[in-house]
Design brief:
Elements: E1 3-6, E2 10-16, H1 19-24, E3 32-34, H2 37-47, E4 51-54, H3 57-68, E5 72-75, H4 82-93, E6 97-98, E7 110-116, E8 122-127, H5 141-145, E9 149-153, H6 160-174, E10 179-183, H7 187-192, H8 194-203, E11 207-211, H9 212-219, E12 237-241, E13 247-251, E14 255-259, H10 273-286, H11 291-305, H12 317-324
Parallel strand pairs: 1-5, 1-9, 2-7, 3-8, 5-6, 9-10, 10-11, 11-12
Antiparallel strand pairs: 2-4, 7-8, 12-13, 13-14
The structure holds alpha-D-ribofuranose.
Alpha-D-ribofuranose binds at residues 8, 10, 12, 55-57, 60, 112, 124, 271-272, 275, 311.
């Protein structure tokens, strides 16, 4: 495969709300808070009209890469319930190989209550449910070794079992030419697990993709380049996204690409913007494209995703990206 994703398999339940409601629930605006099933039910009951979409950070990225034409697979745990079926059908509909056995019975499939405010910002509350059962046995070492890159998400650090799963991925990759990529997910998540992520960056991960806040949470006063191979880290690529201002790609040897963003036609919902960037970038990278073009593909994919509600690949993604990235033929 070109890219294999390992992450929390989540169904997003999106609804529009306002800042007062976010404050009333004492949720960090723009962040992700872990909740239990009872809290998830309560939020759902209060939500009013909702829209259900397949979610999960790395699952979103992998769906984008597959929709662009990458040979892509995903490992994540759902339960054999309605939401599990919905997640499975959705990710497969984008051409992703997804065969992780579903849990029988409880805990239920994970869901993320995504509150979208009028400024397009999303505030997420996640019940992890079946994701907590993802474990090393779900990883086929040959799949990792046979993929150009295995992409893991920072959110996996929230459970011990998932950290063991990451351990199996990095071991399998280390025995092959496969690369390991990491998206940092959320600044709060980096705050919770900073030392763990720093160790991954020093020892195991070749590609890191993060937004400015997540990167600052990881490196503090040090530059992002401190994660590069030769500077104390293990990374071959460190990519920092700057929202509507674009992204910066750092590589060893002082290679820096500042990539301007493609402006979004409209801002509806930022859910999955970073995931779309990661999926688009890695699609380009697995095709051997230059770093600036990889960044442009990511930026265009992100600009299309924020113009809709939810993180799913937009209709006609391949054609739209090919039209907006000069010189790119999407095959
Ligand atoms: O990055 C956005 C994703 O994070 C959470 O995992 C939600 O499921 C959402 O789809």
């Amino acid at each position: 495969m070109d890219v294999l994703g390992i992450g929390n398999a989540i169904v997003d339940v999106l609804f529009r709300t306002d800042d007062d409601t976010i404050r009333a629930h004492e949720l960090p605006k723009g962040g992700m808070t872990l909740i239990d099933e009872t809290q998830a039910e309560k939020l759902y009951t209060e939500a009013g009209e909702t829209t259900e979409r397949s979610g999960g950070s790395v699952a979103n990225a992998i769906a984008i890469a597959a929709a662009l034409g990458a040979d892509a697979g995903y490992v994540g745990k759902v339960s054999d319930d309605r939401l599990g079926t919905s997640f499975t059908e959705s990710i497969r509909s984008h051409g992703v190989h997804f065969t992780t056995p579903a849990l029988s019975g409880s805990p239920a499939t994970a869901r993320c209550l995504v509150m979208v405010t009028p400024d397009g910002e999303r505030t997420m509350s996640t019940f992890l449910g079946a994701c907590t059962a993802l474990g090393p046995d779900d990883i086929e070492q040959d799949d990792v070794a046979g993929s150009r890159v295995s992409l893991i998400e920072g959110y996996l650090a929230d459970t011990e079992q998932a950290r063991a799963t990451i351990g199996k991925v990095v071991d399998a990759a280390a025995k092959s030419k496969a690369r390991v990529g990491l998206t940092l997910s959320d600044a709060g998540c980096v705050d919770r697990h900073r030392e763990y992520f720093r160790e991954l960056a020093r020892e195991n991960v070749e590609i890191i993709i993060a937004d400015e806040d997540e990167m600052a949470a990881l490196v503090g006063d040090e530059p992002a380049t401190s994660l590069l191979r030769g500077n104390g880290g293990n990374c071959e690529l460190v990519i920092v996204t700057h929202g509507e201002k674009g992204s910066t790609v750092y590589a060893p040897g002082g290679v820096v690409e500042d990539v301007l963003v493609h402006p979004a036609e409209q801002l509806v919902d930022t859910t999955g913007a970073g995931d779309a960037y990661a999926g688009g970038f890695l699609y380009g990278w697995t095709r051997g494209l230059d770093l600036a073009t990889c960044g442009r593909i990511g930026a265009v994919a992100a600009s299309l995703v924020v113009a809709q509600l939810g993180a799913q690949p937009p209709e006609g993604l391949r054609e739209k990206v090919a039209a907006l990235v000069p010189g790119l033929e999407v095959r």
